[in-house]
Design a protein that fits this description.
homodimer, 375 residues, alpha/beta, Rossmann fold, 2 domains, eight-stranded mixed sheet, two-stranded antiparallel ribbon, 46% helix, 17% strand
Chain lengths: 375, 375
């Protein structure tokens, strides 16, 4: 699935709308105009970014694209999850329509997870869908959210409750961009890399922990390696199941508790921190049920701690507050939450499906124990 | 493609998300709960309708579904194109979320084109997409808009500029519902049937004109026949090209001028009337260019006149106003409008693709001639 390609990695993801390439290549931004022209030809290019990443990456990329003869326009919005709304989606759409962009327009999302999700939803719904290129600049987006085709916005009832599956036409990742992040931001993305190791590749998990300091420091070689391996693992899963009806569920490991804790904290808890704590709790839940091998949780905690991750936060309102959010999870069926449980590190335990219900009192005990104490 | 099925027609449409059935069957509403249970099983059913069709069809269908043990809820909105907005889409989505509906919910659209497009867009984006059942109650929706997967809303810049391709899981058509319409409403749908004949089936066009009075009167047998044949013709086209990249373009015959006239009239001109006039103009354009056989336009006008259709309206602002809207058409490329031209009745003339650009002065001459005179 991976081959050498101009010094980088080139992964192909299968989707219902055709296969798309994910390039992981130091210096990829410098040849972005040529890559766009070759991989996703269009009459106009709508670059979408936020007002933090826009000046840093969006403006130079648009300038270079114009210099190369592409009709590129930059649209920006205020940075932050607070912009991932139907309102901001409407504004961006109307700005593109005002610029008389048509169906032969390509949307280029330059930024982190919020930009990718919001710009992706714009692309999914603009004139019933135009091609999308993901240019992730955060480690969360490089390692996880730019691959797989999920797009959407938040609403009052919860995060990502409105959206679409709209696979990108290409994903272009330049690991050098990780140098513009700080260690805390990098750790948010590395939590998802640890998850990929936890569910699919024991050796990857071990090597991530070994290279933790280089990864936290934004070392380009280490970043390229981790991003390429995570993309490869995730691509294999979503290629086999694009819409979360089967195998893709395993990517939700750590996310059932993680999402509930994020919601209970009023989204002051960051996603990577929440998922890391969620993995610890869900591994502990699996051990309590006898599904997960004893000792798995402590190995996970060791790996996470190398990145300063995995401590279970006390949540305002306590366990009961998080419990209330569990039933509202998107993956809940008939209002009952579902969990992905490990067999051991690197391997998910399959029941009838890849996720399962767990008796409510077991979940409550876990939350009361896990969330009442940590800090 | 058609087989007898409980006395009705059963057409299968291929789509990227799998094949779906279109049932055309007098009395289908009476077995709707059983059809839903068999064809599209779900934990909850969100019926969406407007405040005119809701009391007429939505409420009895929801009551019957509940009596049959389905968890069905009716959501309605104010009738009319004015409700086909992002705002109304947000309201319906939030109402479904407030009712704690999850991914195992099925959206059932009961109504005409506006209901189908709006409810379809809700289904396309609710938790990144849930199954949709189209239950068209107008002849436009039965003959045309319920099949093919187009969903969306209008924005200030134009109609249907925001939306998604979201193929239904099933389309259930009861020709008896046409009895609740008036002749003027029926004619709006029959304009699209004439279009199907004009581009694909000369014999169908001739028989439509022969049976015009029965069709305008809402005769159930005649309606069943025309709906089934139109669905079969359209299904064959969209099965071969779901996203309008190729063959599906032929369904836009009459629509380039039609949309421009609708827009220029401020949408006081009805869609069927606009498309009928658009077909006349585009046929005349084809004859002027030597692409369309001489005499084609007059045969089209004869067929349309049987339904009281085909007169070219004078448009407020005149030809120049309509011209301004031509470049803004969704199918325009690089700002230049494209036209589908007939070879003769029942056959589209293919250039490099199924649509083509036409020199601007030829278009202007056509509009000045065609739109300055009619009534």
């Amino acid at each position: 699935m991976t081959r050498a390609w101009e010094g980088g990695a080139h992964v192909t993801v299968e989707s219902r709308s055709g296969a798309y390439p994910v390039l992981v290549e130091p210096g990829a931004y410098r040849r972005l105009p040529a890559l766009l022209r070759d991989l996703v030809p269009g009459h106009r290019y709508a670059f979408i970014s936020d007002d933090v990443v826009g000046p840093l990456h969006g403006e130079p990329l648009v300038a270079a694209s114009r210099a190369a003869g592409l009709a590129a326009t930059l649209f920006t919005f205020p940075a932050g999850e607070g912009s991932k709304t139907r309102k901001q989606w409407s504004i961006l759409t109307d700005e593109m329509l005002s610029a008389t962009m048509g169906r032969d327009t390509v949307v280029v999302a330059v930024g982190g997870g919020v930009v990718g999700d919001l710009a992706g939803f714009v692309a999914a719904t603009f004139l019933r869908g135009v091609p999308l290129v993901q240019v992730p600049t955060s480690l969360v987006a490089m390692i996880d959210s730019s691959v797989g085709g999920k797009t959407g916005v938040d609403v009052k009832a919860g995060k990502n409750l409105v959206g679409a599956f709209h696979p990108p036409a290409a994903v272009i990742i330049d690991p050098e961009a990780a140098r513009t992040l700080n260690a805390r931001e990098r750790a948010q993305g590395l939590a998802e890399a640890v998850k990929h190791g936890a569910i699919l590749d024991e050796g990857y998990l071990a090597r991530l922990a070994q290279h933790a300091s280089a990864l936290l420091a934004g070392d380009v070689d280490a970043t390229e390696w981790a991003v390429a391996r995570s993309v490869e693992l995730k691509a294999d899963v979503v290629s086999r199941d694009e819409r979360e009806s089967g195998l893709r569920e395993i990517l939700n490991f750590g996310h059932t508790f993680g999402h509930a804790m994020e919601a209970a904290s009023g989204y002051t808890l960051r996603h990577g921190d929440a998922v890391a704590a969620g993995m610890v709790l869900e591994s502990r839940l699996g051990e309590a049920l006898g599904v997960t091998d004893a000792g798995t949780t402590s190995r996970l905690e060791d790996a996470l701690s190398a990145f300063g991750l995995g401590s279970v936060p006390s949540v305002s309102g306590g366990a009961a507050a998080a419990l209330a959010f569990l039933g509202a999870d998107k993956k809940a069926r008939q209002g009952r939450p579902r969990f992905v449980l490990l067999r051991r590190v690197g391997c998910v335990a399959k029941a009838d499906t890849w996720s399962r219900e767990v008796p409510r009192d077991t979940v409550e005990a876990m939350l009361t124990h896990g969330m009442g104490t940590g800090g």
